[in-house]
Design brief:
single chain, 4-stranded antiparallel sheet, 17% helix
């Protein structure tokens, strides 16, 4: 499964977005996965909500801190050193 480039900012809070994948297992909780080159993916379970009027669905990470930390480490590793 390929990652999709996210839009520039979160439509709810304006925060930065992290591209990843959503895994929907046959049995168990759905997960969001983030991959850094050379290491296994870092995952967190996701929860969802649905609008009772229009049926729009939104997902939210149950524990986003591990993915935030991995993403920040990846960004630091890609920065050129002075």
């Amino acid at each position: 499964m390929s990652e999709v480039s996210p839009p520039g900012a979160c439509h709810l809070c304006g925060g930065d977005l992290i591209a990843g994948t959503v895994a929907l297992p046959v049995v168990g909780q759905a997960k969001f996965a983030y991959r850094l080159p050379g290491i296994p993916s870092i995952e967190t379970e996701i929860d969802g909500t649905m609008c009772t009027k229009c049926g729009a669905i939104a997902f939210i990470a149950r524990d986003p801190q591990r993915i935030r930390a991995a993403h920040a480490a990846g960004v630091r590793a890609r920065r050129p050193r002075p």
